[in-house]
Known about the structure:
five-stranded mixed β-sheet, alpha+beta, binds iron/sulfur cluster, 20 helices, about 10% strand, CATH 3.30.1330.90
Amino acid sequence: MFLSVFDVFKIGVGPSSSHTMGPMSAANRFLDLVLSNEWPRPSSNVHVESIKVSLHGSLAHTGIGHGTGRAVILGLMGERPDSVDPDHMDAIIDEVERSGRIMPPGHPAYRFQPKTDLIFDKKVPLPGHANGMSFSAFDKDERLLVKRIYYSVGGGFVVTDTELEQMKADRKKPVPAGERVPFPFASAKQMLEMSERSGLSIAQMKRANEETHMSGEELDAGLDRIWAAMSSCIDRGLKVDGIMPGGLKVRRRARAIHDKLQEEWRSNRINPLLANDWLSVYAMAVNEENAAGGRVVTAPTNGAAGVIPATIRYYQHFHEDWDQDGIRNYLLTAAAVGGIIKHNASISGAEVGCQGEVGSAAAMAAAGLAAVMGATPEQIENAAEIALEHHLGMTCDPIAGLVQVPCIERNALGAVKAVTAASLAIKGDGQHFVPLDACIETMRQTGHDMSEKYKETSTGGLAVNVVEC
Length: 469
Ligand code: SF4
């Protein structure tokens, strides 16, 4: 099992990795398919003239609040999550709505009228996963030429229905010895065993795995790019004020809190909650940017994007010996834990609720932070387990389908729990009662048993008990 650190941490746009970035990537994949030779053409005179898309399950229920329709249109215009300019998105969408055409680079123009050709189908879920999409291309006589089902499986990952079946089958298979990378750990137990045998830290093993695909310089440059994107997201979020989009009229709070904290810092007043306050404001800054559709990094998802940047900034702010290598080791350790969770359970709110998003982010952050605070591999595993255990059962019930309430504050609390978990683990000797693997399996089972109402459909929980005004 190998999931690159750059699959876990992907630069993109808000507000949701599964409901925004995934659908944009699915549209990119469908465009590539249309140009390819992977489908039989009835004759050389037959050309694709129009495209239709339908969204199903959670994408249909909360897609409007999550900007899924906008993401599909942008993807069909050839825009990609890591390069689309958030300031130009509205103009691109306006142009498609006005002309009824999509004009992706390298393609002819296709008919596509968002009002009629982009369907939010709340009645018929697709069988493979809660986040299903169907893309179809037609000729000039409206005859179907090619159709593909895609699933957005969390963290911006997109697979076809066939690939999803393969993934499910692979999850059950034992990991073949020596699978392409030197340390193919698929569980926390294997990770600890390999660490003990090799004498390497978790970050060193993850680095060795990554370096089978790229040079050390490329890896470091990529990790630095990820942190730079996270860091500038915090800085932007601390500067901007106002109401977030979507209709809930929720005001941004990070800037005002930050101003107060700076004033307090300058006046040397003693604040017993100092670290908590800074952690919270960093996390909220990121998630307010995400809610506004700004540039963010999946960590491991957009909804949970604030926890890891907040704890890295906390490491810089409160640990005098922080350095760039520390941040790289943090990201590698966090990605190792995130990969294990994704492989054995899920990081998708639509699959297992928010325990899979903010819970996974907190586990990854606790592991990364413990690593840079000098923890042993056993203490790191313990830190991740403590953080995840105390998110078990947490549902996903965003009000109005917007990644705002409870998501923004939830990231602040996730960051605080992650720091507490790292601190508790470091004070122990790594021996503990609940193994991380058992905790991950518990999350999977709890998510499986959880009612669909609490899995990013906004049909239960806070989403139905708070009056929108
Ligand atoms: S409640 Fe949690 S899982 Fe659901 S959208 Fe918000 S952050 Fe994501």
